[in-house]
Specification:
Distance between the termini: 40 Å
CATH topology: Arc Repressor Mutant, subunit A
Largest sheet: 3 strands, antiparallel
Oligomer: single chain
Shape: elongated
Strand order of the largest sheet: 1-3-2
Helix content: 55-70%
Length: 109
């Protein structure tokens, strides 16, 4: 399973908000400033910065600051690390559903 539950919690918390998911999707295409992340979401720079902070705490985004320019880039590793969590449960549910299907198929006779 996932080795770092605290990191996993932070990633799932970060992914829980639509604005942050949108930011990550757009960052997958390349670096963007906080202003560029805020613009299509029609939110203030302060609100966008708070969302970026959540993404930074989860390790999903790295922000560099040059003068007044805050540039963000995607850090995809935490997403890959977290993907083991649903995979673990998918195996559990698949096994249970297979057993349920076998039970019903056996009782159809």
């Amino acid at each position: 399973m996932v080795d770092n539950p605290v990191g996993t919690d932070a990633v799932f918390h970060a992914l829980a908000h639509g604005a942050r998911r949108d930011m990550l999707r757009r960052l997958a295409a390349g670096e963007l400033t906080v202003g560029e992340l805020a613009a299509p979401l029609k939110m203030s720079l302060a609100a966008a910065s708070k969302h970026v902070q959540v993404l930074e705490r989860a390790g999903l985004v790295r922000r560099t600051v040059t003068d007044r320019r805050h540039v963000c880039r995607l850090q995809p590793a935490p997403l890959a690390d977290t993907s083991t969590w649903p995979t673990f449960y998918e195996r559990q549910w698949t096994a249970r559903l297979d057993a349920l299907q076998a039970y019903f198929e056996g009782n159809d006779r």
